[in-house]
Design goal:
Blueprint: E1 12-13, E2 20-21, E3 32-36, H1 47-61, E4 65-72, E5 81-84, E6 87-93, H2 103-108, H3 114-127, E7 131-134, H4 143-147, E8 153-156, H5 185-194, H6 204-222, E9 227-230, H7 233-241, E10 249-251, H8 258-262, E11 278-282, H9 291-298, E12 306-310, H10 317-326, E13 332-336, H11 343-348, E14 352-355, H12 365-372, E15 377-380, H13 385-388, E16 395-398, H14 403-415, H15 418-426, H16 433-450
Parallel strand pairs: 3-4, 3-7, 4-6, 7-8, 8-9, 9-10, 11-12, 11-14, 12-13, 14-15, 15-16
Antiparallel strand pairs: 1-2, 5-6
Length: 451
């Protein structure tokens, strides 16, 4: 196939929607698929990791052989390779020195690691996969893309990492970023803020060089990728704006793990909300998720409404403490981190999910999950969220960061709960992971034929 971008993909997901068009899901030959991801359950439960795990299991159920390569800390000798639910896990132990690295080595290891590269070469020799599907290589090594040649190579774009070192396009002043400037000088502000090295900013032209090199290196590797999958049109457009080949980036919405959502938590694990309508937040308790905006808006409502906030309080304890100080409404509850099997039950208790993000969200798994159990969503009018939530149809949109706008939307829904019922009726769930995997199976087959 080369790098011409002429791959004939058998069907597309409609931009901004859930429906498949033109895909033929007839079974093909058994394939051996290798995945590369930066983290993995149960140690890490982010959307990328959960998606990779769900896709690997779905492909296995369809008769294929899935192998997942990923690094992990604190790994005991002799357990590097395990089989879990028919999926083969190839785990690379991270050295203890990674925990206390200086900023230079830490930055280098975000996109290169010689030890992991050697382990990946051994992995390819032993597994002999038909193709490699990269989920994320941050903290692994971007060179794995090059090392996988001449096999067909796909990359799913879960965020903006291939042109933004912090992956989220957020500036230190908490405003969305348009991406690296010429020479990456604005990237220095982000890096020095995160590493508490502001004293280096007067040396901006010199400090910017490693960022410019990194982005040039990753962009060169992108030319070797056969196909990029973007879960949203917004994400695809951002990559095109930053010089990535439009003809190689296909919009394919992620699949939904319906079996996980169907699980019923043990009795009394999720107490009933004190009053309804019951709104909820489920995700990382980090400032870019905008939970403080939600709490401040909720404080303006009367006691006929309740809010439950699910998320780990350990990751960013200072921010959580700030949230709890802000919360004055008597029906705001902090309910901690959910186990995966509890997510469906928690969402079913909600009348509406709120996603008040302040960054360019790509394709939040939690919106798919809410729609999967028929729960409408209120979301920021930012990034790909307007693609996912149809204002007035399957939810409501508000101006990102605006307490006034969000409070007005919540007040409207509290006063007219019948609107929530109408939105719930119009929700169309995302394709199941089984359907999604069958679609990718056809893409894999096309790539193997044309390679």
């Amino acid at each position: 196939m080369g790098n011409t971008g002429t791959l004939s993909v058998p069907g597309r997901l409609r931009l901004g929607g859930w429906h498949l068009h033109g895909a033929d899901f007839t079974g093909g030959p058994r394939r051996r698929v290798a995945f590369v991801v930066h983290k993995f359950p149960p140690e890490s439960l982010g959307g990328t990791e959960l998606y990779c795990w769900g896709l690997a299991r779905a492909l296995t159920a369809q008769g294929h052989e899935a192998h997942i390569f990923y690094p992990t800390p604190s790994l005991a000798d002799g357990v590097e390779r395990v089989e879990r639910e028919g999926v083969y896990l190839w785990r690379v132990p991270l050295p203890a020195s990674r925990e206390n690295e200086d900023p230079v080595r830490q930055y280098w290891h975000t996109y290169r690691d010689l030890g992991i590269e050697a382990a990946f070469q051994r992995f390819l020799q032993e597994v002999q996969p038909d193709l490699v599907h990269f989920q994320h290589v941050q903290g692994v090594s971007a060179r794995l893309i090059e090392l996988a040649a001449p096999l067909p190579r796909l990359v799913t774009l879960h965020d903006y990492w291939y042109f933004c070192a912090n992956s989220q396009l957020i500036r230190p002043d908490r405003r969305p970023c348009d991406g690296p400037s010429a020479g990456c000088r604005n990237c220095v502000d982000c890096a020095t803020e995160r590493a508490d090295l502001q004293w280096m900013r007067p040396l901006r032209p010199l400090v910017a060089l490693p960022f410019a090199y990194r982005n040039h290196y990753l962009r060169r590797l992108a030319d070797e990728v056969d196909l990029f999958l973007a879960p949203s049109a917004f994400l695809r457009q951002k990559y095109v704006e930053h010089g990535f080949p439009a003809e190689k980036i296909v919009v394919v919405e992620n699949g939904l793990d319906v079996d996980k959502l169907a699980q019923v938590p043990e009795a009394n694990v999720l107490p009933e909300p004190p009053v309804r309508p019951h709104f909820g937040f489920l995700g990382s308790l980090a400032w870019q998720k905008g939970v403080h905006v939600l709490i401040e808006a909720f404080n303006r409502l009367d006691e006929r409404v309740s809010l439950t906030i699910y998320g780990s309080e350990r990751t960013f304890p200072d921010y959580v403490a700030e949230l709890k100080r802000l919360a004055r409404h008597p029906n705001i509850r902090f309910a901690g981190l959910l186990e995966p099997q509890q997510v469906g039950g928690a969402l079913r208790q909600m009348d509406c999910l709120v996603v008040p993000s302040l960054w360019y969200e790509n394709s939040p798994l939690v919106i798919q999950e809410a729609f999967g159990v028929g729960v409408p969503v209120v979301a920021s009018r930012l990034g790909a969220l307007p693609e996912k939530v149809k204002d007035g149809s399957t939810g409501r949109l508000f101006t990102a960061g605006s307490v006034d706008d969000l409070a007005a939307v919540l007040q409207d829904l509290m006063t007219h709960p019948q609107m929530l019922a109408g939105m719930a009726e119009r929700i169309v769930p995302a394709p199941s992971m089984t359907v999604h995997a069958a679609y990718l199976e056809q893409i894999y087959q096309s790539m193997l034929v044309e390679k």
